[in-house]
Amino acid sequence: MRNFDFSPLYRSAIGFDRMANILDSLSRAEQNQPSYPPYNIELTGEDKYRITMAVAGFAQSELNIEVNHNHLIVSANKQPEQQERTYLHQGIAARGFERRFQLADHVQVLSAQYENGLLHVDLQKIIPESLKPRTVPISVSASSDRLVAEQAKNDPEAA
């Protein structure tokens, strides 16, 4: 894989330290990120998302979902088998995993469902009312009302 040097961003971008840190950590994490289990991320509506992970072979009780400071952590611990098996070919992974997802600000986990070997985690970006843009009405002060009335009285043609 390619390595990118983000140090010039630190020197020239004031106030974007967090973004540069995220880009830097993503480039490092990409190199050692496990590919198991496979997953999809889909947009299901405006500001609504779904992560679907293929977790065949795991019972619902072996799966764990945790949200901690803008991180979604999905993990599983496979219970050891009671009987010893002799495999001629073992293509189905029987190991635990931990998959981490970085969540944007104000993204909340709504629900999780397990069906047919797939784990579905539904997310939604919910922006608080205090952070949404709002329109501020503009009022006219009493002194400017008097000024307009005086101008109309003194200059009847202007009205």
Secondary structural class: alpha+beta
Provide the CATH topology of the largest domain.
Immunoglobulin-like
Average pLDDT reading: 78
- N/C terminus separation: 74 Å
Shape: elongated
* SS summary, helix count: 3
CATH architecture of the largest domain: Sandwich
- Per DSSP, what share of the residues sits in E-state strands of 2 or more residues? 25-35%
Protein name: 16 kDa heat shock protein A
Pfam families: HSP20
Keywords: Stress response
Domain SHSP: 30-141
Question: How are the SSEs placed, and which strands pair?
Answer:
Blueprint: H1 7-12, H2 17-31, E1 39-45, E2 48-54, E3 63-67, E4 71-76, E5 97-102, E6 107-115, E7 118-125, H3 142-154
Antiparallel strand pairs: 1-2, 2-7, 3-4, 4-5, 6-7
Task: Please name the defining characteristics of this protein.
ACD_IbpA/B; Immunoglobulin-like; elongated; 30% strand; stress response; 2 domains
What does this molecule look like?
With 159 residues, the protein is of the alpha+beta class. It folds into two domains: 1-33, no CATH class; 36-81 and 91-133, Immunoglobulin-like (Sandwich), CATH 2.60.40. It has three helices and seven strands, in the order ααβββββββα. The chain has helices spanning 7-12, 17-31, 142-154, and strands at 39-45, 48-54, 63-67, 71-76, 97-102, 107-115, 118-125. Strands 1-2-7-6 form a four-stranded antiparallel sheet, with no helix packed on it. The chain has a three-stranded antiparallel sheet with strand order 3-4-5, with no helix packed on it. A hairpin with a 2-residue loop joins strand 1 and strand 2. The chain is elongated and about 105 Å long. The relative contact order is 0.14.
